[in-house]
C-alpha cells in the first residue's frame, strides 16, 4: 500500500475545504444579510458534507478502500454541489436555472451514502479487490 494519498483523495479534501468555506460564508450571509432557511440549509449541508468528505478520503486511504469509498464520496460531492447550489440560487435569485438540481443532488447524496455503507461492508467482508 502506498503511503501517499491518491489524487482522488486529495481532490476530495480540496473540495471539502471549499465546501467548508462556502458553508461558513453562507451561514454568515444567512445570519447577517438575508434571513433565509434555504441558505441555512445549504450552509449546513456544505459544512457537514465537507467534514464527511475529509473523513471518507482518509478512510479510503487508511483502509486501502479507494475504489469502494471513492466513488460514493464523489457522488456525495456532486450531489452536495447540485443541492446546495440550487438552494443558494433560489435564496439569492428567487429561482434556479435548473429546476431539478436540488432533487438530483439530494438523490446523489442518498445514493452516495448508501454506497459508503455498501463499500465499507464489502471491504469488511474482503469481497472487493484493494484499490
What labels would you give this structure?
131 residues; mainly alpha; 4 helices; 0% strand; DUF423; transmembrane helix; membrane; transmembrane
Describe this structure in words.
This protein has about 130 residues and is mainly α. It has one domain (about 5-125). It is built from four helices and no strands. The chain is elongated. The protein starts with 6 loop residues before the first helix and ends in a 6-residue tail after the last helix. The model has no long low-confidence stretch (mean pLDDT about 90).
Compile the SSE list and pairings.
Layout (H helix, E strand, L loop, with lengths): L6 H26 L4 H26 L3 H28 L7 H25 L6
The average pLDDT score comes to: 89
Relative strand content: under 5%
- Low-confidence blocks of residues: none
Secondary-structure-based class equals mainly alpha
Tell me the Rg in angstroms.
16 Å
| Count of folded domains | 1
SS element count, helices: 4
Ends: how far apart?
9 Å
Order of helices and strands: HHHH
Helix content: over 70%
Coarse shape: elongated
Largest sheet: none
Total number of strands = 0
